[in-house]
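Recall from the previous chapter that SMILES is a line notation for molecules. Here it describes S-adenosylmethionine.
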Amino acid sequence: MSTTDQPVNANRALWEKGDFTRIAETMRESGEELVGKLGVTPGTAVLDLGSGDGTTAVPEAQLGADVLGVDIAANLVAAGNARAQSLGLTNLRFQEGDASDLNELADDSFDLVVSIFGAMFAPRPFDVAKETVRVTRPGGRIVMGNWIANDPTFVAQLLRISASYSPPPPEGFISPVTWGVEEHVVERFGAAGVPADRISCERDTYTFTFKGTPSEFLDDFRQYYGPTMNAYAAAASGREAELHAELEALVGDLNTSSSDDLTVIPAVFLRVTVSV
Ligand SMILES: C[S@@+](CC[C@H](N)C(=O)[O-])C[C@H]1O[C@@H](n2cnc3c(N)ncnc32)[C@H](O)[C@@H]1O
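With both inputs in hand, we obtain:
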């Protein structure tokens, strides 16, 4: 129990622990490119769920949509609102909320619900599907970007290695990367009332672009990315060098840049589009 006698929300704690804005800085170009494919027009009512500091929410608003970013982490909500303000985007705001329980949002409120590597991290995936369908208006769409279980590219491997050094998850925990497996996606949205022929899944690629070496890039994950921070903390009692070597090899092998001061790492994800 915390000092306020509330049970600690492990999901929130994971993302408030670090500073995801540092990682998000390396994902802006791909975020903008993805948003460009979503058919956002002025006045589109968009919910960006698990928005972080707005990698996709900002370009959605720049295309003229009315955007609400919802995220479980208070620090990222504050960072998103600061970005919206500094960019003069009065059609973009961020608030705290949980993708598994969007009770503060009314039914049929949004034309488009976007969740890029966001809602996949929420507990209770069937509730995520039910809630996203509930807040989307009939005729609207849900677009999710999800890292894929067993995929050989960057984030799936980073999460796999990080998990293998972390304490076992609590009983009943469902791995976020199951959201990258089509049959789970269809089952979850099916339980929320969406037939399979209204769900499409395609592989797409996000590219991380970092000004620095692969080792410096890894350092940012070590210092600022909750799942990797947890792995280093758990490995500190004797396995830290082994973990570090494994992750150094990963980023070194996957880097496609030939320049010493630039790291470029592609990562494959599942782009899910649901017509509500
Ligand atoms: C990998 S980051 C992605 C952020 C952003 N979508 C982007 O593309 O930069 C995952 C985000 O999901 C948020 N998140 C995790 N669990 C959540 C939940 N249950 N409800 C809402 N947001 C959640 C985290 O706080 C974090 O901002």
